[in-house]
Design brief:
Layout: H1 14-31, E1 48-53, H2 59-74, E2 78-83, H3 88-100, E3 105-108, H4 117-125, E4 130-133, E5 146-148, H5 151-165, E6 170-175, H6 182-195, E7 201-205, H7 213-226, E8 234-237, H8 242-251, E9 258-260, H9 266-274, E10 279-281, H10 285-300, E11 311-313, E12 318-320
Parallel strand pairs: 1-2, 1-3, 3-4, 4-5, 5-11, 6-7, 6-8, 8-9
Antiparallel strand pairs: 10-12
Length: 333
C-alpha cells in the first residue's frame, strides 16, 4: 500500500537514484541505533503498544508488521496487533479495542483516511497517544505524528519514471488501487503533478485493480484487447501487482508497452531484471515497521524531541535495471 513507496529521468539520473538509495541505507542504519530502553524514568514499567493494521494478510503490511513486532521486542516492549481485514468498521472497532485494553500507545494503519477518526478521538479522550503508520489520515484527530511514505511523492516518483520511459510521449493507462483509499487518491495526484508538465503524455484509461494480482491480470488483458499495437504506450499500476500483467503481455508478444509498478517486492525485482517491468518506486515496509516501534519507544520514554512532527516521510528511491542488482527487495507478495 497499505501500499497508498510513493512515490529519475535518464540515468545520468542514476546519480539521483543512487543518492536516494544512500539516504535509505543511512536511515535504515540509524534505525538500529534507537535507545533500547522501554522503561519510563528507570521505574521498570514495560510498555505495551497496539497496532491497528488495515490488513495483516497483505504481503506488504505483513512484512511491516513483522518488522514492527521484532523491533518492539528488541526495545523491550509488548505488542498487540489487530487485523482490520480492509473493513472500515472493523478497523475502527480495533482502535476502540486497544483503547479498552489500555495500551500505552496506538499506531493506526488504516485503509480509509476518515473511518477511524472517531475511534482515535476516543483514544485522545482516554489520554492514549496515537500515531499513524503507513497511510496518512485526514485532519480531525489528535495524532502525535505520521510515519511512512508520502503517497503524493510516491505518485510523483511513478510520474518521473513514466516520463523517463516515454521520452517522446505517448498514451498511458493507470490502474488504480482501492478507490477512495489514501494511496489510490494521493498517488494519482502525484502522477498528474508530473504529467501536467508533459502534455505529450496522456492518460487514456484508469481501470481499477484494487492492488490485487488477479484483478491486475484481468485489467491488463482488457486493456491489451481494447488498445492494439500502436495505440497504448505504457501501463502503470499504483502497487506491485503490475508484474502480473507485465508478464502476461510479454508472453503474448506485446513487448512495445512499458510497464511501471509501485512498491518493490521480490516478484517486482525479478520482473525488472527480466525486462518485463521498466521500473518501480521502492517503499520499504521493513523501515516503516521499525520506525513505528522506535517512535513509540521514543515518545513513551521521554525522548519526544526525537519524534519528527507532524510527519516523518521515508525516502522513495526509484528502481530500474540500472540499480536493481545492488538493491535487493525485502518482501515477497
Amino acid at each position: 500500500m497499505s501500499a497508498s513507496i510513493p512515490a529519475r529521468r535518464t540515468f545520468r539520473r542514476g546519480l539521483a537514484a543512487a543518492t536516494a538509495i544512500v539516504s535509505l541505507t543511512v536511515l535504515t542504519a540509524a534505525c538500529g541505533d534507537a535507545d533500547s530502553s522501554s522503561t519510563a524514568g528507570g521505574k521498570g514499567k514495560t510498555f505495551t503498544i497496539g497496532l491497528a493494521n488495515a490488513d495483516t494478510t497483505i504481503p506488504f503490511l505483513a512484512s511491516m508488521n513483522s518488522a514492527f513486532e521484532a523491533e518492539a521486542k528488541r526495545l523491550g516492549m509488548k505488542t498487540i496487533t489487530l487485523n482490520g481485514g480492509l473493513d472500515n468498521a472493523k478497523q475502527a472497532a480495533n482502535v476502540q479495542t486497544l483503547v479498552a485494553r489500555r495500551v500505552d500507545l496506538i499506531l493506526v494503519c488504516s485503509s480509509s483516511p476518515t473511518a477511524v477518526l472517531p475511534a482515535i478521538k476516543q483514544a485522545n479522550r482516554a489520554g492514549i497517544p496515537v500515531m499513524a503508520l503507513n497511510a496518512q489520515l485526514s485532519p480531525g484527530a489528535d495524532l502525535v505524528t505520521y510515519i511512512g511514505a508520502s503517497d503524493r511523492q510516491f505518485g510523483q516518483g511513478e510520474g518521473k519514471l513514466i516520463v523517463q520511459a516515454l521520452p517522446k510521449g505517448g498514451k498511458i493507462a493507470v490502474t488504480l488501487g482501492t478507490l477512495g483509499s489514501t494511496p489510490q487518491v494521493e498517488r494519482l495526484k502525484g502522477i498528474k503533478d508530473v504529467l501536467k508538465n508533459h502534455p505529450n503524455i496522456k492518460i487514456v484509461a484508469t481501470p481499477v485493480d484494487n492492488f490485487k494480482n488477479s484483478e491486475n491480470l484481468s485489467v491488463t488483458q482488457d486493456l491489451l484487447s481494447k488498445y492494439p499495437k500502436g495505440k497504448l504506450d505504457a501501463i502503470v499500476a499504483q502497487g506491485p501487482q503490475m508484474y502480473v500483467g507485465a508478464q502476461y503481455a510479454r508472453k503474448i508478444g506485446r513487448n512495445e508497452i512499458r510497464f511501471i509498478a509501485g512498491d518493490y517486492s521480490k516478484q517486482v525485482e525479478a520482473a525488472i531484471k527480466s525486462g518485463d517491468l521498466y521500473g518501480t518506486v521502492n517503499q520499504s515496509p521493513v523501515l516503516e515497521g521499525k520506525l513505528g516501534a522506535q517512535y513509540a519507544n521514543y515518545w513513551l520514554t521521554g525522548q519526544k524531541d526525537k519524534v519528527k512532527q507532524p510527519n516523518y516521510y521515508i525516502p522513495l528511491p526509484p528502481i530500474t535495471k540500472d540499480n536493481v542488482d545492488t538493491n535487493p527487495a525485502e518482501w515477497s507478495g
